[in-house]
Amino acid sequence: MTPQRLLAALALVFALAHAPFLATSLEDIDSVNFALGLRHFDVADHRPHPPGYPVYIALGKVTKAVAGTLTSGAESSLDARALSVLSLLAGVVSIGLLYAVFCCLGKPKGLPPPVEWPTGGDKPLGLSGLPTGGDKPLGLSIPWHTLDVAAFSATVITVSCPLFWYLAVRPMSDLPGLAFALAAQACLLLAWRRQAPAPDGDTRLTPAVTAASGRMIVIGALLAAISIGMRSQCAWLTLPLLMLVLADRIGRGVAGALIGSAMTFTIGGLLWGIPLLVASGGLNAYLTALGAQAGGDFTSGEMLYQTPTPRVAAFALLRTFVGPWDSTPLAVAVLALAAIGLVQLAMRDRRSLAAVIALGGPYFLFHLAFQDTAFIRYALPLIPIVSFLAVRGVMLVSVPAVPVMAAVVSVWAVVIASPVLVAYGAEASPTVRVLSAMQAEARVSPPGALAMHQTFRRPLEAETIGFAPQLASPPRLEWLELEKYWREGHTEPVWFLADPVRSDLALIDPMSRRDAIEITWPLVARPAFGGMRPSSVRWYKMPAPGWFAEEGWALTPETSGMARLRGHGPELGPITAWVRRRSTATRVLVGGRNLGGPKDPSARFTLAIDDAPLPSWDAAPGFFLRAFDIPAGRLSGPGEFARLTIRSTAVTGSAIIPTSIEQFDLQAPDTTMWGYDSGWQEAEYNPASGVWRWTSDRATLRILGPPIARTVTLSIESPLKYFDTPPHVRVSAGDRELAASTVSDGVDWTFDVPADALAATGGLLTVSTDKTFVPVERGGSPDPRRLGLRIFYVHVLPKASNSLTP
User: Fold this and answer.
1) For 588-607, what is the HEC assignment?
2) How many CB atoms lie within 10 A of CB 648?
3) pTM of the entire predicted model
4) Which is nearest to 707 in space by CA: 762, 636, 665?
5) Which of 143, 179, 180, 375 fits a disulfide with 129 by CB distance 3.0 to 4.6 angstroms?
6) 535, β-bridge pairs
7) How many whole angstroms separate alpha carbon 402 and alpha carbon 154?
8) Burial of 207: CB neighbours in 10 Å, binned 0-12, 13-18, 19+
């Protein structure tokens, strides 16, 4: 079978394996931006996001126009289908381009004699397909007449890599961008091989070879420029190789190649650059949009240039080289072979090594330092390099073993990827699924308004809503729009789409947040799907709350950060919560910190309702938790809401003592409330894990409410991340042990608390552990706290109840 037929067969199998599982919805914020760009191109409005992807959008419009004549449905579904078809076409085309690139990358030296594979050809096959002697070849240097088994094997490994496999159906620009870059690389590598020294070391080029090489250089430069309009990162995949090929011609006709490539590169750039600037409103408007996007990109996520630590570098390397294979054992096997191949190139084939470095080195450094490696798809351009090196690693040991290794790796990879691909094609994104559920329920009982975190504002722009007015979603201040809605007198339920990793809704009465549904996409647990946004959504159906807070409250690390950023805090002026009027008695639970130093004075906190003070309390530097009753009638008065304020002042002196209110709730006395009392560290947060608190060796929970039995759940991270042996954890009420366990794995530990045990201690439960550590004593971290258990959440329920108290 000829190489053309074999590659065509591979492309057909690849297409048939993917066509049934094309994306049915827009599943990432980038795909949403691309879809909006198909409808109306406006880079300043992120249609799509800068730098604009003009070539990708142009091809997407063509694909959408064709798809629109063949299928029907919602516009967002059509957008998703069109862009995913473009990805699949790019994957199919990439098969031939990869083969061309691998054929040109170099002929092994110092290996066992090449094997003549039984393909019907008449020439011995090296990795390059070049004749082994005689004059330099003038042809394409790609063995289309006989099969270069090593190049084909590297192609098969690349396209079966799970990340490549998945991106062939996702409505994203990654694979189309790679396909254009591969086209440019193939042309430039053809020139590179034609310029290679003869077997006798002669570096002179005949006029025919000079002309043929020059043609490939100028075509490669044109394709490189177009590829940058497809995806800007392609600059790192093509320009270094172009410079290498031009440098290799110094003294051998470089001037003509340099002038020609500069002209075609400029033409290619102008083909998309001029329309881009015109559509963007001119150069200044475009640069403004680009600067804003760059500012956001380089300040979000975890990038090595921001945090140049061994930990961040290690995670970046794992995500870059292990994540794409979606299986650690598979990744280890391929990477081990690639490491051997890299050594082989360094020792025996320096020219091919130079080409490999130009192909992947600059992009690798850029990716590692300036891209958020949590987005595993950014590692796609490095997969061909790893696959090529893995083949060279096998060839160092046994050339005939190359196709066997390729078959094993590709089958292994496809077995891993195929079930995931089926799951991807069978289910819409969480945003689309929750919207469908809301539309169905709204036909029966529509909400008064729809609100959401900023994360979901953009995805819903691509969908049709129509069942309720939408509240604004100012970034990081979304809850303030809810406050305005309620203060305007609205009592109809609000449906709120929340990002589960956000915590600002803690500023709203927890009793109004009990009706919640979370819709997730299990695919995000797969390493190769890392970085999908949004990956889950929590739908709250909120009745009118009993209270809600304004700015200045530090109830979570997120709200604390916003309070400090915007200059609010109890020591700077009263912080306000609005409490719904009622004639009955209520109970308040309030906790926080005096953030002063050990020698600073105590802070006096004063809680007032409608500017009338209630009992105040003093707090020395450190944590505090207080509970007190508000008598019946105290919350009565004109209007829908009473104004509750808390402020702090120094007990002595005039200096401002920094303070924070970190816990707050107000409920009827027969409602269960609970808070973190002594022994708990402050709340912490990161986007990957959410919010957590550490215990010390003993940490106390205070539970308030009616004298009934309760069930408590602690979500504990595996202590073996911090200790060599599992700790013994004990829960007690006074001297009475209620539960005990040796905790080795991460668990949701649930136990019952009898009513009489709580009554005997005034509602206090103590969680103790026999193992603690101080980070600063272990080196690295300057953290001086004594830490025991890392707790992600605590739930307190009436016993035998299924309703969680947040």
Assistant:
1) EEEEEEECCCCCCCCEEEEE
2) 27
3) 0.88
4) 762
5) 143
6) none
7) 9
8) exposed
Phi, psi of 666 (to 5 degrees): -145, 120
DSSP secondary structure string for all residues of 746-789: -EEEEEEE-HHHHHHHTSEEEEEES--B-GGGGSS------B--
Closest CA to 185 of 237, 140, 142: 237
- Please, where are the H alpha helices in 645-715? none
H or E element at residue 477:
none
What rounded mean pLDDT belongs to the chain? 91
Contact 589/625 with Cβ under 8 angstroms? yes
Q: How many whole angstroms separate alpha carbon 334 and alpha carbon 280?
A: 44
Parallel/antiparallel/unpaired status of strands 710-716 and 747-753: antiparallel
- Going by pLDDT thresholds of 50, 70 and 90, the confidence category of residue 15 is very high
Coil, helix or strand at residue 36: helix
Per-residue pLDDT tens for 623-671? Answer: 999 999 999 999 999 999 999 999 999 999 888 999 999 999 999 999 9
Question: Are the beta carbons of 253 and 204 closer than 8 angstroms?
Answer: no
Strands 586-594 and 547-549: unpaired
> Smallest Cα–Cα separation from 774: which of 762, 783, 765?
783
Q: Angle 494-499-502 (CA atoms, 0-180°, nearest 5)?
A: 105
Please report the pLDDT score of residue 107 as a whole number.
58
H helices of 145-173, in order, are: 149-160, 162-167
DSSP state of 50: T
Grouping H, G, I as helix, E, B as strand and the rest as coil, residue 246 is: helix
Q: Does an H or E element contain 731, and which?
A: strand 728-733
pLDDT in tens, 570-606: 999 999 999 999 999 999 999 999 999 999 999 999 9
Mean pLDDT of 449-454: 96
Distances (CA, A) of 166 to 90, 397, 597, 624: 13, 32, 54, 51
Structure tokens given for 704: 């308030």
Going by C-alpha positions, the residue among 313, 422, 348 that lies closest to residue 110 is: 348
Widest Cα–Cα separation across the chain: 104
Contact 134, 158 (CB under 8 A): no
What is the DSSP secondary-structure string of 178-240?
Answer: HHHHHHHHHHHHHHHHHTSPPTT------HHHHHHHHHHHHHHHHHHHHHHHH-GGGHHHHHH
State residue 199's pLDDT score.
80
3-state secondary structure of 21: helix
Q: Is 114 helix (H, G, I), strand (E, B) or coil?
A: coil
Where does the pLDDT of residue 122 fall: very low under 50, low under 70, confident under 90, or very high at 90 and above? Answer: very low
* Cα distances (angstroms) measured from residue 366 to each of 209, 224, 243, 378: 34, 18, 17, 11
Does the pLDDT at position 495 exceed 80? yes
CA pair distance 247, 251, nearest whole angstrom:
9
Amino acid (1-letter code) at residue 290: L
Q: Which of 184-198, 301-315, 721-735, 785-799 has the lowest mean pLDDT?
A: 301-315
Structure token digits, residue 679: 């022994």
b/e sequence 601-627, b meaning 16+ C-beta within 10 Å: bbbbbbbebbeeebeeeebebebbbbb
Which residue bears the tokens 């130079």?
A: 354
Q: What confidence score (pLDDT) does residue 303 get?
A: 87
* Chain centroid offset of residue 159 CA: 23
Instruction: Please choose, from the candidates 593, 594, 675, the residue with its C-alpha nearest in 3D space to the C-alpha of residue 628.
Output: 675
Q: What is the H or E stretch that residue 252 is in?
A: none
User: Are the CB atoms for 666 and 547 separated by under 8 Å?
Assistant: yes
Phi, psi of 383 (to 5 degrees): -65, -45
Strands 516-520 and 449-452: unpaired
Mapped onto helix, strand or coil, the DSSP state of residue 321 is: helix
Q: Are 103 and 142 in contact (CB under 8 A)?
A: yes
Query: Whole-angstrom Cα distance, residue 146 to residue 117?
Result: 9
